[in-house]
Amino acid sequence: MTPSRDIAGLIEIMAQLRTPVTGCPWDLEQDFASIAPYTIEEAYEVADAIVRHDLGDLCDELGDLLLQVVFHARMAEEQNAFAFGDVVEAITRKMIRRHPHVFPGKDGKIAATDVKGTWGRIKAEEKAERAARRGVDVPSLSSFLASVKAGQPALSQAMELQTKASSVGFDWNDPRAVLAKIREEADEIEAALDRGDQSEVAAETGDLMFALVNLARHVKADPELALRGTNAKFERRFGYIERALAAKGSSLQEASLEQMDALWNEAKGAE
Hints:
mainly alpha, Helix Hairpins, 11 helices, 70% helix, EC 3.6.1.8
């Protein structure tokens, strides 16, 4: 197939990959749930390319993200639910509806309006319409926390939930009080471990992470950026261990935990 700048070429490729017998075995095995983690991963890759100011990578990563949209649309088309064209039509209609100050309405006029206020009002209307289609009780959407997006990364969602609750006074006034809560959650994890209750351990671990996000919020640290910084630090120090072992003619597989721990402390002391 000749490479094309037209989206139709990519849609055709995905259709071929998903064709029984002649398609790709891996692609044929996938469903919405199995592909969802890759969709999230590709969105993060886009964000990473932006942070690195690498426009070449950004182009590639946007293509990878687009593939995810095409993949989901193809699976939906196979179930006679919707196709890629329906996805495009839906977002096109939505963008026009949300920008009455840019696009003329049925009367041919462009609205002079409060942009942020109109955006929020229209999004709320759309949310109510989606709920009605799903058979969800619309009044339940009036909850104070209903505007917090459920589909965003858990760290961001936790931060947004806490910030919104804080706006009506449901919050601690001192980060030390949050530290006390963190210690309390850690104790509850230890108790759950003693009882051997794995599901309770998992639930208490979630509580601890929620409390840690709360601490980050109180000390004005972005939890996502803070964790990314720690990830980079871990990667850097672990790389030091690998290099130090290689210089001694050894490897990670051959080294003991005590040796690796000592090298970790060396790396930490050198920073």
